Amino acid sequence: MKLPWRNEEHDADAAGARPAGDPDQRPAEDRPGGGGRGRGKAYTPKKGRPTPKRKEVERAQGIRRGPVEPPMTAKEARARRKAEKATMSKAELKAKRARERAERREARRIADERMAAGDERYLLPRDQGPERALVRDYVDSRRFVANIFLPFALVLLLVMLLGQAFPTLANIISLISMGLLVLLFVEGILIGRNANKLVRERFPKFTGTGFGLGFYAYSRASQPRRLRTPRPRVDVGAEV
User: Fold this and answer.
1) Residues 160 and 191 in one domain
2) What is the pLDDT averaged over residues 195-216?
3) What is the model's pTM?
4) Distance (Å, whole) CA 206 – CA 161
């Protein structure tokens, strides 16, 4: 039946573009199992998209091998370890643990070296700031009686252990120790006052406590020079 809004030319074009009795307008070689020339029945047409990479699939499933961001919570860490055990063999897990330990040791070594060198990014909170750096330079440029505090403490401990065997010697060393303790106490007050005075002159806007700054100065002065961290960056006798 010819409809009034259709013309003969349109019908002829449609009949020529579509083979009679074929409901699919695609060419035979593009149909699934269509048996195009040179292609068997197992031929599968293109998906129209690239095959996703393995790491993309693992990321979508919540599993990712290789370096990843550290977990934020303990629950997330447990879930990650469980996923690793499910996707890795024992040999892979052992190698991964060994690699992580080696990376942690190397990171710790680098952090210790940078902290000893005085790098602000690696310093402990107690050592950060230009005020603390100035206090360290002040202490490192001078010699104090407090420098022998640790050796003196060891000698005092030894005297306490051997006091019963040598009572006379123990009494003499005890008197010397009491005098040295008084001297260390007075020197600690002077070191704290001088450090605070120097910091207030150089940094008028400093709002820290004087006791904390003084204790920091004295604690560094009581350490042997070779054991100080960060390492001294000025020589003894240098002007600060």
Assistant:
1) yes
2) 91
3) 0.59
4) 46
Residue 21's pLDDT is what? 47
For residues 141 and 220, membership in a common domain is answered with yes
Domain identity same for 90 and 182: no
Q: Are residues 85 and 141 in the same domain?
A: no
Residue 220: HSE in the Cβ half-sphere, 13 Å Cα cutoff: 27
Mind listing the pLDDT tens digit for each residue in 6-29? 555 545 454 454 444 444 555 555
Burial label for 145, CB within 10 Å (0-12, 13-18, 19+), is middle
Distance, in Å, from the CA atom of 70 to the CA atom of 64, rounded to the nearest integer, reads 12
Look at the chain and report how many structural domains it folds into.
2
Q: Find where tokens 């065997």 sit.
A: 165
Q: Is residue 238 part of a domain?
A: no
Q: Are 240 and 234 in contact (CB under 8 A)?
A: yes
Q: Which of 40, 47, 79 shows the shortest CA–CA distance to 63? A: 79
Domain that holds residue 97: 75-117
SS (H, E, C) 44-76: CCCCCCCCCCHHHHHHHCCCCCCCCCCCCCHHH
Q: Which of 151, 152, 144, 154 is nearest to 177 (CA)?
A: 152
150 and 203 within one domain: yes
Site of tokens 């070296």: 113
Residue 100 included in any domain = yes
What pLDDT, in 10s, does the model give residues 132-186?
999 999 999 999 998 888 888 887 788 778 777 778 877 887 888 888 889 999 9
